[in-house]
Amino acid sequence: MDMPHLDDVRARGRTSAAVRVRRWQSKSWHVAQCAIAAGLAWFVASDLLGHDTPFFAPIAAVAALGTSYGQRLRRVGEVAIGVAIGVLIGDLLVTQIGTGWWQLTIIVALAMSTAILLDGGQLFVTQAAVQAIVVTTLAPTTSGAFTRWTDALIGGSLALLAAAIVPAAPLRRPREQAAVVIRKIAGLLRVAADVMESGEVEPAMALLADARATDYLIRELQAAADEGLAVVASSPFRLRHRPGMRRMAELVDPLDKSLRTTRVLVRRTAVAAYHRRPVPASYVVVCRELADAADVLAEEFRADPSTEGPSAARAALMAVGQHTSELQRSHALSIEVVLAMLRGLVADLLELTGLSPLEATDALPAPRRDWLDDDLRHD
């Protein structure tokens, strides 16, 4: 095995390990919450109520909470009721027909049918079946049916209480991820400006590949926004954050549009480099100014979640928009598209400061028209 290949394997291993550690860090609150809820469920059922080995209480608590915020209250309700139904049906039928393979078949069928007839979701139906199996095979006693049923309700109730207690991190994450997307746009713009200035094809192709590999950023932003909405919907302690979280969720589409516009700008910059079309120096300056304005916008998103709109970034973007209207027009189609994308990106980013699409477009002064008497030369 040659050393470059070994180095690649090691690099991929380090990256994979880092990804796993970040994933664990992002789920550490869920892990702690499930662990504490399980312990408390056992304590309440065993120590306070005197139930003998109440293992259904922690099972219901952990199964209900899970490791995500999405539809948590619904999941808690489905699991708690599903577990309770499975335990109840299993206990009642075991006392009547005993245990065995055919008894298990009947009990599982009845538990799942009951859950379906109650209009339960997939999690509801699955938990009813699983807990009926546990009762029939692992705890087939003729006494304590009500106790096991109440154990399941205890676990579900504690899960419901725990679900209302959420950290502030999911509320910050959408803004932090939005800042990541905007900083990526700023980085692409700076490299694009370098390519415009140098006209080198190889860096242009590398830039194009980098821009095309950015879809995951929007997916992560959407996931963060969904998680934040789920948190404010499920926790009564986070009601005051609902308007701000909804505003953040509404910015996912404008951010996606901004990133797409950036990719088109990068592609036209690469085309200009490939065809040896020199880009005017003034375009390079404006592209770098736009990158600086994007950085200001990213910092405002990251640092101050209380503002209605990033005011400093809006002023910087308005200044860049004014500069785009003063740029010398070009006869080359690639250069004209670069200008159009610069102006379009300014408008897209202005939407992120709180302007409507029409307001953002109207905020840009009209471009120069001194070339319109000439024929436009296509690439």
Helix percent reads over 70%
Number of domains: 2
Specify the CATH homologous superfamily of the largest domain.
Phosphate transport system protein phou homolog 2, domain 2
Shape: elongated
Membrane topology: Multi-pass membrane protein
Subcellular location: Membrane
Domain Integral membrane bound transporter: 41-161
Pfam family, one: FUSC_2
Which keywords apply here?
379 residues; mainly alpha; Methane Monooxygenase Hydroxylase, Chain G, domain 1; 2 domains; 77% helix; disordered C terminus; transmembrane; transmembrane helix; membrane; Memb_transporter_dom; Integral membrane bound transporter domain-containing protein
How do you describe this structure in short?
This protein is mainly α.
Note down, in words, how this protein is organized.
- The chain folds into 2 domains: 30-163, no CATH class; 169-362, Phosphate transport system protein phou homolog 2, domain 2 (Methane Monooxygenase Hydroxylase, Chain G, domain 1), CATH 1.20.58.
- The chain is 77% helix and 0% strand.
- The protein has 15 helices and no strands.
- The chain has helices spanning 3-48, 56-65, 72-97, 101-117, 122-137, 145-163, 169-198, 201-212, 215-234, 242-250, 252-274, 281-303, 311-324, 333-351, 357-362.
- The longest helix has 46 residues, at 3-48.
Write the layout of secondary structure elements.
Elements: H1 3-48, H2 56-65, H3 72-97, H4 101-117, H5 122-137, H6 145-163, H7 169-198, H8 201-212, H9 215-234, H10 242-250, H11 252-274, H12 281-303, H13 311-324, H14 333-351, H15 357-362
